[in-house]
Design brief:
Layout: H1 2-9, H2 19-29, H3 35-43, E1 51-55, E2 60-64, E3 73-77, E4 80-84, H4 87-93, E5 96-100, E6 106-110, E7 113-117, E8 127-128, H5 130-135, E9 141-142, E10 145-146, H6 147-161, E11 168-171, H7 177-187, E12 195-197, H8 210-220, E13 221-223, H9 225-228, E14 232-237, H10 244-255, E15 260-265, H11 287-290, H12 293-300, E16 304-307, H13 310-316, E17 329-330, H14 332-335, H15 343-350, H16 358-363
Parallel strand pairs: 8-17, 11-14, 14-15, 15-16
Antiparallel strand pairs: 1-2, 2-6, 3-4, 3-5, 6-7, 9-10, 12-13
The structure holds iron/sulfur cluster.
Length: 365
């Protein structure tokens, strides 16, 4: 936004608010001599998360931001270079996975081969930890870890940290399924598909209004009554955002005759918005930003509620614990410790258009 305003003052005309259009204007207005130097000039002005793929008549360029917040992988098919955000895309077209691009890496693919450059100052990587919790597909491997295996480990950590006396473990499909399998295996409880998902409707958390979201939940999930009736249930979901979807799912289970519903969440409480390209609600709308765990349990109407700790999440990723001074990942939606400045948010706050959490504001410098 800040860059877009600067470009507009210099005469650039925008037809959208897309970040990609801003990058195109930066490339177009650069004084670099060729497309590569203009591209480098443009990406060096960006702050935040991006994984870009650009085409010129003779080149394909791929670039990850300096911290490698978002993924980008290199593949190969019949001698041609492929760039994709996840390895599952390579599987689908029968391409071979070559490697993840490194944080801050830029690759240039031409008919002669692939060249690699590092146009940014060296920094420690801060890959988005939420990719492992929710965004990436479970059949992908990102940064050397298989997402499905990580999610099962997350479920096992969750069971160790938040044990519960229950009859069955039920996932909120599909996001909670691998973690629920891990939970059930670690807890020695049966795993059952107590909720069946309709695959013909989209993600509910990005729907624009509460009423459309509520209808979306009903269209999306149905209780498998035979599995639920008279059972004490551990309900596993990947995360709780606004809490309204969880509330509906819990009601669905109660209406189907569940005796008890104990919710276990495969991530820490989501307390802060993401400013790195994810359409999450503003911080004030996140349930965990305004309620204690006990209050959230009451709001969602569960018999008990437990979240994975931040260290538990890091353990599931094979780390001993979170390095608090220099965390190994971006985990800002759980900790409000943003790995970059947030100049756009600062601009919005000073113009009175939005309110950041106190930590987020101080991080934005
Ligand atoms: S704030 Fe959360 S969702 Fe956004 S990049 Fe960081 S970890 Fe990922």
């Amino acid at each position: 936004m800040t860059l877009q305003r600067t470009l507009q003052k210099q005469g650039s005309i925008f037809s959208s608010t897309s970040d990609t259009e801003t990058i195109l204007h930066l490339i177009a207005t650069s004084s670099g001599k060729d497309v590569i130097s203009r591209f480098i000039d443009a990406v060096r002005q960006l702050e935040g998360a991006f994984s870009l793929v650009a085409l010129s008549p003779t080149k394909m360029i791929g670039c990850r931001d300096a911290l490698g917040i978002r993924p980008l992988v290199l593949g190969e098919l019949d001698g041609a270079c492929i760039l994709a955000s996840e390895t599952c895309a390579l599987d689908i077209i029968g391409a071979r996975f070559v490697r993840d691009l490194k944080h801050g890496e830029m690759v240039i693919a031409t008919a002669e081969g692939v060249e690699s450059l590092f146009p940014f100052e060296t920094q420690k990587p801060r890959f988005c930890i939420f990719e492992y919790v929710y965004f990436s597909r479970p059949d992908s491997s990102v940064e050397g870890r298989n997402v499905y295996e990580v999610r099962k480990k997350i479920g096992a950590e969750l069971a160790i940290e938040n044990p519960v006396d229950a009859d069955i473990v039920v996932p909120v499909p599909d996001g909670g399924t691998p973690a629920a399998i891990g939970f059930a295996q670690a807890a020695g409880l049966p795993f059952e598909l107590g909720i069946i998902r309709n695959h013909y409707v989209g993600r509910t958390f990005i729907q624009p209004t509460d009423s459309i979201r509520h209808m979306g939940v009903k269209l999306k999930h149905n209780a498998n009554r035979r599995m639920i009736e008279d059972k004490r249930i551990v309900l596993v979901d990947d995360s709780v955002v606004r809490g309204t979807t969880s509330q509906k799912i819990v009601q669905l289970l109660r209406d189907a005759g569940a005796k008890e519903v104990h919710m276990r969440v495969a991530s820490p409480p989501t307390r802060s918005s993401c400013f790195y390209g994810v359409d999450t609600p503003e911080t004030a709308k996140l349930l965990a930003s305004r309620m204690s765990i006990e209050e959230m349990a009451k709001f969602i109407r569960v018999d008990s509620l437990g979240f994975l700790s931040i260290d538990g999440l890091y353990r599931a990723l094979g780390e001993t614990a979170r390095e608090n001074k220099q965390p190994q990942f971006c985990d800002a939606c759980f900790t409000a410790e943003y790995p970059t400045r947030l100049p756009d948010q600062k601009a919005l706050t000073t113009s009175g258009l939005c309110q950041l959490s106190p930590q987020a504001d101080s991080e934005s410098g």
